[in-house]
Hints:
The protein is of the alpha/beta class.
Amino acid sequence: MSLDLKMAQQAIDALARHKTQVAATKALGIPRGAFRHRMVLAQVHGLTPAVPRPAARPYVANRIGRMHLIIPDVQMKHGVRDEHMRWIGNYIVEKQPDVIVQIGDFADMESLSAYLKAKESEGLRYKKDLQAVHGALDKLFAPVNDYNLTAPVKYKPRWVLTLGNHEQRILRLIDDHPKFEGVFGIEDLKYEEYGFEVHPYLKVIKIDGIEYSHFFTSGVKGNACSSAAVQLRERACSSTAGHVQHTDVAIHKKTQQTALFSGTCYLHDEKYLGQQDNCQRRQIVVKNEVEDGRYDLMFVSLKYLEKHYS
């Protein structure tokens, strides 16, 4: 066996022992890029682990209810950081939630913004928007795909995405300019190709007794609920939304139904928020013990993910 194949075998054995790419890379003491190269080489040559892999998720039998993981608004666009997507992917591999919900606005689609002035739009391109989204999706799904290369039991969670108002910019473009129908479309984002079950903008989907949508409306004009308390009153059940930057939680004192604004999941600052409003929580949300709409709520900050899963 050549030296390259020996190193590839070491990489695939390390992944089998340590379960996650982060742990395997640290055990071998090599850069992540080198580890990924060796994993590709192992896949091409059909190498299999020479050591038995620990049983996947040995604690599953003790899990109460189900686990949901929520990825809030990512607003991915050209020129901003996206490495946190790999941190989230590594966390997903380790914790293996049953359901993963991206609450919408994964894509920013800045080139289609109606709010930017001509000078601010200089250099923005639809193609660059898509490249940024696809790059972030590659990083999110890479740890799961790497894990499934050698796992005796493949990890196949339910991936759900509720489209947001930023993705809706593509459809508004087509509505305003019908000549572009068939040229542009939501399918350009490739969400379904990556594995997401995609739901239309503002459609409400219910999973394990919890409603999910990019936001929930209130009043005759259909405006977004102004607070979690309003959302709890309007929906009269557990519900989770994105759309706004801040985090807000309201729990019914008797039924324990929970309304949630899930915050944001990006590392960059937004110019339109100004100096005082870019201090919101940056996080993913984990719901443990999900059963009939009740759950144990946990926030996991991007700073924590960077420290432990980068």
